[in-house]
Every structure is written in structure tokens, then in C-alpha cells.
Input
Amino acid sequence: MLAFISGDAGGPNHFGWWSLPFSLVCYALFFLLPIGCVAVLIHKIFSLPLRRRERARFFLDLIETALDRGQSVEHAIVSAAESRDHALGVRFYLLAAYIEGGLRLGVALEKVPRFLPPQISAMLRAGEKLGDLKRVLPACREVLRDPPAAVRSATHYMVAVLLAFSPVAIYVMVFLTIFVFPKFREVIAGMGMLPPAYARLAISHTGWLVGFEAVLFLLLVLATLIYIGGPQFIRWFQFQGLPLVDWMAWRIPWKQKRLQRTFSAMLAVLLDGGVTEAEAVRLAGDCTANEICRRRTRLVIAALERGTKLDEAVRAFDDHGEFHWRLTNAIHARGGFLNALRGWHEALDAKAFQQEEATAHVVTSGLVILNGVLVALVAMTVFGTLISMVEMMEAGL
Output
């Protein structure tokens, strides 16, 4: 009995009574702990866009609270930074340090460009020039509106395909190309047999299949980096004099609608604030943070300088003409431009989310079908070739 407890006994209980807990501890340390760390890391990385949006919302709430209390916005930001709350983020404290050094809010935001989305920063600077930050807060909150759950689920599903299936598919195809298909070619040549047409296609063009899967994987990686990195990451691909990223954003239907909403909302806020039409159009174009929109606003300003009415001049901004008649009705409506155009802004948001959701589902479904076709082709090639070999051997016997 003493030998068993001390672990000196032989047989299956050689490790003693502590063997099972020790095994569980080892299992937890070498298997569960790494998986848990990877899961936490993935959660931290893919929740970055949501955390950025929440911090931007908190900043807008802080501004609104300070204005409601009659306090200075700069003083409220410095006071909030004294709390040393880690949830505010490092860039918030950097912004507070610039403000404490004597800079105004707009200049400090230019010093910390990654603190807020570019559109929000431009809107706040426009509100500062207007002399009433509170007027631009509703338009800022429209930019920060959360996408529907269906869009988020489709995006997360695409990320799951990226992390799980695509690397495995590439590894399997490379393994088959290096180790399996060359042996098949040798056997086929030695036996003088002719495999099925699809097998010949897959064996002779495996490199193209691997390359196609690798390109698809890289595109998924790029899409994931854009989702995680946000607007500041996208700006790395923006070249001076060649606004490729802005051009692509304008050509994507749901992004174009959001740019139209941002321009329209800020134009309405500025017009309600008494800003001249030309200056309101210029500031609204800057608030989109898109060079294509800025070029179109310059056409609108040129039309205004020629004496064209605003509702006619905005035709240069919108190719479909809807903004023209919406603004025409808003001019004759009561309650200000922003209230008159609110229904259109909500309709633009709804259409943008609908198009984004449909595209996300089409892309994810297409990825699943495409990968399924590739897997089926590889499986049919391997088993079809083996079956042809067996049939030829049986015929020879």
C-alpha cells in the first residue's frame, strides 16, 4: 500500500496517484493554453474595428456632454485624460497632450490622424470653423452607424474560410504536386495507360490550380487587413496625384452611397449654420475624405461661381440626378436642410447596407462553391487514376 502511494509499485499504476492530475496539467499547458491564447489574440485583432468605432462614439459623447454643460471641449478632453483609463486608448492621451500644450481641437486632430476616422476628423474641424460643434455631431454619428448583423456574420465567415480552409487547400495541392502526381506520371507512362480527361487536366495543370488558390488566399488576406486596419491602412495604397483608393471607393456602390450621405449631411448642416453655398460645398467635400468627391465639389463650386443655383450645380456631384431633386425639395421645405434630407440619408444607409450584405453573401458562397469544386477535382483525379490503374491490371491478368 505504501509502495503504491509513493509511486514505487510497478504495473499500470507505476506513476502513482498523482499521474492523472499531472497529465491533465500537461494537457492544459501544452494544448489548451496555446489554443486559448490564439483565440484571445484573434478576438483582439478582429475586434479592433469595433473598438475604434466605440472610442469614436465615446469621443463624440464627451464633446456633446461638455457642450451641454457649457464647458470648453478642450478642457473636457484634458480632464478625461486625467482618469488614466486604458480603455480610451493611447492616441486619446496623445491628443490630450497636444491640447494641453495649447493647441485647438482641430489642429490637435491633425496631429493625431489615426485617432478618429478621417471623415469624423474633417467633420469636427468643419464644425469648429462653423463655431458650433454640436451641429455636426448627428452627421458624425451617421458615419459611425454599425453594419447589420448579417453583414458582420458574412464578413466573419469569410475570415473563417481564410484562416481555416484556404491554407489547408494550398498545402494539400502543393503536397500532391510534389509527391503524388509525379509518381502518377511515372506509373501511367510505365503502364501505357490513358487516365480520364479530368485527371489529365488536373495532373498537367496543378501548378495553375495552386497559383489560383494562392492568389485567392492573398486577396482574402488583403481584404482582412483592410477590415482590421481601417481607413489608415487603406491610405498606404494612396499615391500622390493618383487617388486609386478613392477612385475604387467611389466605384463601389455601397461606399459611393455612404460618401453621398456624408456630403449631403454636412452640406445640410453647414447651410443650416449660415455658411455661404460655395464654402459649404467645399467643406462638405473635405468631410468625405475622398479626392474624387473633392474634384466633383470643385465642379459644383465652379458652377456656383457662374451663377448656377445650388440645386442645379450639385448635378456635377451626383451622376444619377437624385441629389438634385432631393435638394430642390429641401430648399422649399421647413425645418432646415438636415431635417428635410434626413429621410434620404436613411434611405442611402439602408441601400448601402443591403448592397454590402448581398455582396458579402455572394462572395462567401462563391468561395465555398469554388473551393468545393477544387477539392472534388483533386479527389476525382486521385481516385479516378487509381481506378484506371486497377482496371488495367485486372484486364492484364
User: Anything to note?
Assistant: Residues 1-15 have pLDDT under 50 and may be disordered. Residues 152 and 357 are 9 Å apart (CA to CA). The two ends are 67 Å apart (CA to CA).
